[in-house]
Each structure stands twice: as C-alpha cells, then as structure tokens.
Design goal:
This protein has 6 helices and 7 strands. With 161 residues, it is α/β, with parallel strands linked by helices. The strands form 2 sheets. Strands 2-1-3-4 form a 4-stranded parallel β-sheet, with helices on both faces. A 3-stranded antiparallel β-sheet has the order 5-6-7, with no helix packed on it. The structure holds zinc ion (ZN). Zinc ion binds next to loops. Zinc ion (ZN) binds next to loops.
Length: 161
C-alpha cells in the first residue's frame, strides 16, 4: 500500500497530529521544537509541515517548492482538520485507524486470546478485531472512542454545514 504523505505538525496545531495518525499518516509531533529543527526534519524525511505560523510560507525552500507547508487558518479542531484534508486531497478511509495515536507506529493485528488480560472484560466479550502498537504495547479496538472519531471524520469529510 502506498504509504501516502508524511507530516510534521508544528506546536501551534499539535492536536492535528492525533487526527493525521487516525487517518493513517506517518505524523511526527515534537514539543517543544525550534523552527530550524522542524525544517531540518521535514527536509530529511520529506515531511509536509502543518502549521499556523505564516512565517514558514516566506522561507525560500517553501517558496521554491522544495518543502511543502500546509498553512492552517482555523482555530477550531475540526475546522483545522478540514483545511488539511482539503489542501491535500486526503485520503482513503481504508487506512483509518492503522497507526498508534500515542507514538505514530503502524499497528499490527493481534489474536484475541493474546489481549485477554489487557482489555476490560466487556470489551473482550464484545469485540474481535484487536490491534497492538509494537512500540508502546497499547491495544486498540473499534470501540466507542474510535466510533466517535469516525463520526467526527465523516462530518469533516462531508464539508461545512
Ligand atoms: Zn504506541
């Protein structure tokens, strides 16, 4: 599968990191970080910078197209997400919920029996498709938290009311 674009999220729009990970994108968020370091990482990894800081748009390497910046105007979280999605023409829902929200690692499917002592009994009894983060060990399942995020995403994808 095409891994799609990679991102680095500036501190002024830090909450977007989680949402880009929900959508399945490799997204770095380092807090605190100096502008020069953020630029260096974007350059090194080929990451798109997501920021509310207009100053990035005046950088020579951004003007001449070597670095890509998504400049976010909205102050609210879903408005910001909508701007990113519209700017980049994102993405196929089949990759949603494939990445750890805490540490950005791709999740791997894990047999149900292996998570028996790691999830609440009710979850174990009612869910089947479990995934685990190979980095932090966190276990994910399509429960109510993800359902709520999915509903918000569908609202965003549908466009402004
Ligand atoms: Zn993790």
């Amino acid at each position: 599968m095409d891994p799609g674009p990679k991102f680095i999220v500036d501190n002024n729009v830090g909450r977007l990191a989680k949402w880009l990970r929900v959508l399945g994108f490799d997204t770095l968020f380092i807090n605190p970080i100096a502008d020069e370091d953020l630029l260096a990482i974007a350059r090194r990894d080929g990451r798109i910078i997501v920021t509310k800081d207009r100053a990035f748009l005046r950088r020579r390497e951004v003007i001449d197209g070597r670095l890509k910046v998504v400049f976010v105007r909205s102050n609210d979280r879903l408005g910001q997400l909508r701007e990113v999605i519209e700017a980049l023409n994102l993405p196929a829902p089949d990759r949603w919920f494939s990445r750890c929200l805490a540490c950005n690692a791709p999740l791997t499917a894990v047999p149900k029996a292996e998570v028996a002592d790691q999830v609440p009994p009710y979850v174990y009894a009612t869910q089947n498709g479990f995934q685990r983060c190979p980095s932090c060990g966190r276990v994910y399942w399509p429960g109510t938290h993800w359902e709520r995020m999915r509903a918000e995403l569908q609202t965003v994808m549908a466009g402004p009311e």
